[in-house]
Amino acid sequence: MKKLTISIAPVLAVLFTACDSPADPSVRAAASPRFERSENAIQHQVTGGGRLDVAALFPGEEKETYGFSAIVDGAGNARGEMAINFSDTAPFHLEVTCLSVNGHDAWIGGVVTQTHDENAIPVGLEMWVRVRDNGDAADGMPDQMGFFRFAPASFCALQRPAPLAFSWLDGNISVK
Fold first, then answer.
1. Which residues contact 12 (CB under 8 A, 6 or more apart)?
2. I need a labelling partner for 6 at 20 to 30 A (CA). Which of 20, 33, 110, 161 fits?
3. What is the three-class DSSP state of 124?
4. Cβ within 8 Å of residue 117, ≥6 positions away
5. For 55-104, how does the pLDDT look when each residue is reduced to its tens digit (9 = 90+)?
6. Would you call 66 helix, strand, or coil by DSSP?
7. Which residues contact 169 (CB under 8 A, 6 or more apart)?
8. Within the chain, where are the H helices?
9. CA 93/CA 106 separation, integer angstroms
10. What global pTM score does this model have?
């Protein structure tokens, strides 16, 4: 048995060495895949939907409803949508033009593209908001949202420390 082991070992060593190094180096280069991240690949994604109770700060106001989805790619191009129904104005739609993420916080900026009340929220109005994903609400604190800031949507990239004044009653925010 010992003789068989010794005689097979050199043969296996030659076979493995031959498989490890191709004679022609171009064969190895062609066979090795290269994986690169496209600049169009999604870098961050933020989604959310739910209601806020603003009555603590604004007594008598109804609950507000929000829905949003936003992404930013490797080249810094942001896109997405927000549907917003403030308690004291008609619903409106925002096209996302800015998204900035830091940990579990996201800043989303955009421009109004549709509105049910041009006097209150005109088409073309820019704004941004900060949101926070606090994980599963069953595990502790609910997700949070700040006040909308009526300022250039690009301000979201500055990641200003806007207070997170409202906790979600139901729904979820996901920041990835």
1. none
2. 20
3. coil
4. 89, 90, 92
5. 777 787 778 888 999 999 988 999 999 998 887 778 999 999 999 999 99
6. strand
7. 50, 51, 52, 53, 63, 142
8. 2-20, 25-31
9. 19
10. 0.75
